[in-house]
Design goal:
single chain; 306 residues; mainly alpha; two-stranded antiparallel ribbon; 12 helices; 4 strands; elongated
């Protein structure tokens, strides 16, 4: 008959090797920590000041920095060039070694964006950039802006609007070439008058006025209201439910050439025809708006008569 070891002996033979391995691991970790602390810590790079940068980069400073909006980073004890490129002491000690300073040419789009947004994300215009369609499409700050070699000085753009926007938005360029269009190509308005390229909480990065209404009423103020009798699509779907915002081959930027057909997209039922009185439009009525003239809203008529 085989003799079995007592339970305490079996437990000891199992636990003892485990304890030995734990002790060895702790001892090794302590030795590694001691070795790391005994080594002298490398001093962090220090700011050297804009005057030091100018000794080598004087042409960039005078021609492409001093006259830009970024020059204000030198004021009130700011770091100037080093505000974007980081502390430059190691770069100077290395004789201009570009690997010792932040060079935007070597940064990824996300890294470059993070550098820019470290200052600019506190502003209302850029607050939503990280969640914008441009950011999600890997379009970065430096795709549109050039801090040193801008062609449009006010916003440091690489090209002036609308040509800059047309580089990606080809369909918008075609819209503005239609017979009836907002005068973007003529230079009377710009893309950024209606859109915030850095992102908004609305669709297509469309701006809104403080009241919450669409940016359209900033120019078309007579359509804003409020009215006693509101035309529901104006407040729910917005102006684009009837109008093409960039341009159209139809007068008044309408989506459909015939006003009646545009209205009947909503004011019709499968078996009854238009809502309201039975109109024989083919015989007499050329356009709904001949009678329903106050179509954007009225203070006098619930059917938008004059």
């Amino acid at each position: 008959m085989l003799k079995t070891k007592p339970h305490s002996q079996r437990l000891g033979s199992t636990v003892l090797p485990i304890l030995m391995l734990l002790l060895i691991g702790l001892f090794s970790a302590a030795r590694a920590q001691q070795k790391m602390t005994s080594q002298p810590q490398k001093a962090a790079a220090q700011y050297v000041g804009t005057d030091t940068c100018k000794t080598c980069h004087d042409d960039i400073y005078k021609n492409n920095f001093e006259s830009t909006s970024h020059f204000k980073t030198t004021l009130q004890n700011g770091h100037g060039c080093e505000s974007c490129h980081g502390p430059g002491s190691e770069h100077v000690e290395g004789g201009g070694d570009v690997s010792k300073i932040i060079s935007f040419k070597t940064l990824s789009t996300q890294e470059a964006n993070a550098r820019c947004l470290s200052c600019h994300d506190v502003k209302q215009q850029q607050r939503h950039f990280s969640a914008s369609p441009h950011a999600s499409s890997d379009v970065g700050c430096l795709d549109c802006h050039s801090p040193h070699y801008a062609r449009e000085p006010e916003h440091l753009l690489v090209k002036a609007q609308p040509e800059l926007c047309y580089g990606c938005h080809k369909s918008a360029k075609a819209d503005f070439a239609q017979a009836y269009h907002h005068r973007v190509d003529e230079g009377l308005i710009q893309c950024s008058d209606c859109h915030n390229p850095h992102g908004t909480t609305t669709l297509r990065q469309v701006r809104a006025i403080p009241s919450g209404d669409a940016i359209c009423v900033k120019c078309h103020a007579d359509k804003q209201g409020p009215f006693v009798y509101e035309h529901v699509p104006v407040k729910t779907e917005g102006c684009t439910s009837c109008h093409m915002p960039h341009g159209s081959n139809n007068p008044r930027f309408l989506r459909i050439s015939q006003v009646n057909l545009l209205c009947l997209q909503c004011h019709s039922f499968p078996a009854q025809g238009p809502a309201g009185p039975a109109h024989n439009q083919s015989a007499k009525y050329q356009a709904c708006t001949m009678c329903h003239a106050a179509i954007h809203g009225s203070n006098a008529s619930n059917v938008f008569f004059r």
